[in-house]
Design brief:
Largest sheet: none
Order of helices and strands: HHHHH
Helix content: 55-70%
Low-confidence stretches: none
Radius of gyration: 28 Å
Oligomer: single chain
Strand content: under 5%
Number of strands: 0
Distance between the termini: 85 Å
Mean pLDDT: 82
């Protein structure tokens, strides 16, 4: 004889969990629909609404954050592995890259990474999606709305 819960108990527990997850998903969806903002320019003039500008600034040149962080933080494991490699190559007498050149290259990469992080911050703060004539540059304005 198999001991355990009656046959209908486990499916009821899964049903309760599924209902809880569905309620949470619906609540999250309502929140996103109520507060979410999509960057869509006006079809008549090509400008963005005031509420959209902070999101546009956050997304402006976002790739610079990723590349800058990878360069600035990626130098650390490269430096550790490089030091191990350099110490091993000095013992064998087969030095391929001089230590000052290696340290200079790492320093340069770290400075470029930090510069990209700072540069992106400055560019994002100065960015105004309505500052240039977006309608003419991107061709977003619909001709039938123009005078």
């Amino acid at each position: 004889m198999i001991c355990g819960a009656p046959a209908g108990v486990a499916p009821m527990r899964y049903l309760a969990v599924a209902m809880t997850l569905r309620a949470r998903a619906e609540r999250d969806l309502r929140h996103v629909l109520a507060t979410g903002i999509d960057l869509v320019p006006c079809p008549a003039c090509g400008w963005y609404q005031k509420e959209m500008i902070p999101k546009a600034c956050r997304l402006h040149r976002r790739w610079m954050l990723n590349v800058g962080a990878c360069l600035a933080l990626g130098v650390i494991p490269i430096a550790i592995l490089g030091c191990i490699f350099l110490s091993f190559s000095e013992r064998t007498g087969n030095v391929l890259i001089p230590a000052p050149l290696f340290a200079g290259a790492l320093g340069f990469l770290a400075l470029v990474g930090v510069g990209m992080l700072i540069g992106r911050t400055v560019l994002a703060r100065r960015y105004d999606p309505n500052g240039n004539d977006a309608a003419q540059i991107w061709g977003l304005a619909d001709e039938r709305f123009r005078d």
